[in-house]
Amino acid sequence: MMARGPGWRLVEGEADNWHVALRRETEDPVRTWAHLLRTIRSISTTHRLRPIVLDLRDAERLGGVAAQAAGLLLAELEQRGLRICAIVGPDLIHAARVQHLISLHAPICGGCFLTEGEAIDWVRTGPPPVAAPLRSRPGGLRIAPPRV
Protein backbone atom coordinates (compact mmCIF):
# COMPACT_ATOMS: atom_id res chain seq x y z
CA MET A 1 0.00 0.00 0.00
CA MET A 2 1.37 3.40 -0.99
CA ALA A 3 -1.09 5.68 0.83
CA ARG A 4 -4.46 5.72 2.51
CA GLY A 5 -6.87 8.17 3.98
CA PRO A 6 -10.41 8.47 5.30
CA GLY A 7 -12.43 6.12 3.12
CA TRP A 8 -9.79 5.32 0.47
CA ARG A 9 -6.51 3.50 -0.15
CA LEU A 10 -4.00 3.78 -2.99
CA VAL A 11 -1.94 0.79 -4.16
CA GLU A 12 0.17 0.02 -7.22
CA GLY A 13 -1.93 -1.47 -9.99
CA GLU A 14 -1.05 -4.20 -12.43
CA ALA A 15 -0.70 -2.08 -15.60
CA ASP A 16 1.84 0.48 -14.30
CA ASN A 17 -1.02 2.43 -12.80
CA TRP A 18 -2.30 3.39 -9.37
CA HIS A 19 -5.41 1.70 -8.06
CA VAL A 20 -7.52 3.79 -5.68
CA ALA A 21 -10.33 1.98 -3.86
CA LEU A 22 -13.03 4.02 -2.15
CA ARG A 23 -15.10 2.51 0.67
CA ARG A 24 -18.78 2.98 1.40
CA GLU A 25 -18.42 3.39 5.17
CA THR A 26 -16.88 6.86 5.04
CA GLU A 27 -18.56 9.48 7.24
CA ASP A 28 -17.78 12.46 5.03
CA PRO A 29 -17.40 11.76 1.29
CA VAL A 30 -16.31 15.35 0.58
CA ARG A 31 -13.44 14.96 3.05
CA THR A 32 -12.52 11.67 1.38
CA TRP A 33 -12.26 13.22 -2.11
CA ALA A 34 -10.44 16.32 -0.83
CA HIS A 35 -7.91 14.23 1.10
CA LEU A 36 -7.33 12.00 -1.94
CA LEU A 37 -6.67 15.07 -4.12
CA ARG A 38 -4.21 16.54 -1.58
CA THR A 39 -2.41 13.21 -1.29
CA ILE A 40 -2.04 12.80 -5.06
CA ARG A 41 -0.70 16.36 -5.29
CA SER A 42 1.79 15.56 -2.54
CA ILE A 43 2.89 12.29 -4.15
CA SER A 44 3.36 14.06 -7.48
CA THR A 45 6.19 16.13 -6.01
CA THR A 46 8.30 13.04 -5.30
CA HIS A 47 7.03 10.36 -7.71
CA ARG A 48 6.11 10.13 -11.37
CA LEU A 49 2.36 10.29 -11.67
CA ARG A 50 0.74 7.25 -13.25
CA PRO A 51 -2.66 6.58 -14.74
CA ILE A 52 -5.25 6.11 -12.01
CA VAL A 53 -7.98 3.49 -11.74
CA LEU A 54 -10.69 4.62 -9.31
CA ASP A 55 -12.55 1.63 -7.91
CA LEU A 56 -15.97 2.99 -7.00
CA ARG A 57 -17.74 -0.37 -6.79
CA ASP A 58 -17.97 -0.15 -3.00
CA ALA A 59 -18.37 3.65 -2.81
CA GLU A 60 -21.50 5.70 -2.24
CA ARG A 61 -23.27 7.03 -5.32
CA LEU A 62 -21.86 10.41 -6.25
CA GLY A 63 -24.12 13.40 -5.86
CA GLY A 64 -24.19 16.95 -4.55
CA VAL A 65 -21.06 18.34 -2.93
CA ALA A 66 -19.28 14.96 -3.08
CA ALA A 67 -19.65 14.99 -6.88
CA GLN A 68 -18.16 18.49 -6.99
CA ALA A 69 -15.20 17.35 -4.89
CA ALA A 70 -14.70 14.34 -7.16
CA GLY A 71 -14.89 16.67 -10.16
CA LEU A 72 -11.96 18.69 -8.80
CA LEU A 73 -9.82 15.54 -8.73
CA LEU A 74 -10.89 14.55 -12.24
CA ALA A 75 -10.22 18.06 -13.59
CA GLU A 76 -6.75 18.17 -12.06
CA LEU A 77 -5.80 14.83 -13.57
CA GLU A 78 -7.23 15.90 -16.94
CA GLN A 79 -5.18 19.09 -16.79
CA ARG A 80 -2.04 17.03 -16.15
CA GLY A 81 -2.88 14.79 -19.14
CA LEU A 82 -3.14 11.72 -16.92
CA ARG A 83 -5.45 8.85 -17.83
CA ILE A 84 -8.08 8.20 -15.19
CA CYS A 85 -10.85 5.67 -15.26
CA ALA A 86 -13.54 4.61 -12.84
CA ILE A 87 -14.87 1.13 -12.18
CA VAL A 88 -18.49 1.40 -11.09
CA GLY A 89 -19.78 -2.18 -11.14
CA PRO A 90 -23.32 -3.22 -12.10
CA ASP A 91 -25.14 -0.19 -10.61
CA LEU A 92 -26.24 1.63 -13.77
CA ILE A 93 -27.45 4.75 -11.93
CA HIS A 94 -24.03 5.06 -10.32
CA ALA A 95 -22.42 4.44 -13.73
CA ALA A 96 -24.51 7.19 -15.36
CA ARG A 97 -23.60 9.71 -12.66
CA VAL A 98 -19.89 8.91 -12.82
CA GLN A 99 -19.89 8.96 -16.65
CA HIS A 100 -21.56 12.37 -16.61
CA LEU A 101 -19.00 13.67 -14.12
CA ILE A 102 -16.12 12.34 -16.22
CA SER A 103 -17.56 13.82 -19.42
CA LEU A 104 -17.67 17.24 -17.72
CA HIS A 105 -14.29 17.23 -15.97
CA ALA A 106 -12.10 14.72 -17.85
CA PRO A 107 -13.51 14.35 -21.37
CA ILE A 108 -10.18 13.46 -23.01
CA CYS A 109 -8.34 11.48 -20.35
CA GLY A 110 -11.28 9.95 -18.47
CA GLY A 111 -13.26 6.75 -18.86
CA CYS A 112 -15.99 4.91 -16.96
CA PHE A 113 -16.30 1.10 -16.97
CA LEU A 114 -18.49 -1.56 -15.41
CA THR A 115 -15.70 -4.11 -14.89
CA GLU A 116 -12.11 -3.99 -13.71
CA GLY A 117 -10.91 -5.87 -16.81
CA GLU A 118 -12.29 -3.22 -19.15
CA ALA A 119 -10.71 -0.45 -17.08
CA ILE A 120 -7.27 -2.11 -17.00
CA ASP A 121 -7.38 -2.74 -20.76
CA TRP A 122 -8.26 0.91 -21.37
CA VAL A 123 -5.41 2.14 -19.14
CA ARG A 124 -2.95 -0.14 -20.97
CA THR A 125 -3.80 1.35 -24.37
CA GLY A 126 -1.58 4.33 -23.70
CA PRO A 127 -2.11 8.06 -23.65
CA PRO A 128 -5.24 9.57 -25.15
CA PRO A 129 -5.12 11.43 -28.44
CA VAL A 130 -4.32 15.10 -27.97
CA ALA A 131 -6.03 17.72 -30.08
CA ALA A 132 -3.75 19.82 -32.28
CA PRO A 133 -3.15 23.32 -30.91
CA LEU A 134 -4.92 26.16 -32.65
CA ARG A 135 -2.91 28.69 -34.64
CA SER A 136 -3.84 32.16 -35.80
CA ARG A 137 -4.65 33.11 -39.36
CA PRO A 138 -4.18 36.62 -40.74
CA GLY A 139 -7.95 37.13 -40.99
CA GLY A 140 -8.39 36.53 -37.28
CA LEU A 141 -9.82 33.06 -37.69
CA ARG A 142 -8.21 30.26 -35.76
CA ILE A 143 -7.78 26.90 -37.40
CA ALA A 144 -6.06 23.71 -36.44
CA PRO A 145 -2.86 22.85 -38.32
CA PRO A 146 -3.18 20.24 -41.06
CA ARG A 147 -2.73 16.64 -40.02
CA VAL A 148 0.21 14.82 -41.46
Distance between the amino and carboxyl termini: 44 Å
Report the count of strand segments: 8
Secondary-structure-derived class: alpha/beta
Percent helix, as a range, is 25-40%
State the name of the first-level CATH class: Alpha Beta
Radius of gyration: 17 Å
CATH superfamily: STAS domain
* Percent strand: 15-25%
Order of H and E elements: EEEHEHEHEHEE
Described by the principal axes of the CA atoms, the overall outline is globular
User: Could you give the order of strands across the largest sheet?
Assistant: 1-2-3-4-5-6
Contiguous helical run count: 4
Please provide a written account of the structure.
This is STAS/SEC14 domain-containing protein. It comes from Enhygromyxa salina. With 148 residues, the protein is of the alpha/beta class. It is 37% helix and 20% strand. It has a single domain (3-143), classed as STAS domain (Transcription Regulator spoIIAA, 2-Layer Sandwich), CATH 3.30.750. It contains four helices and eight strands; from the N terminus they run E-E-E-H-E-H-E-H-E-H-E-E. Helix 1 runs parallel beside helix 2 (64-79) and helix 2 packs across helix 3.
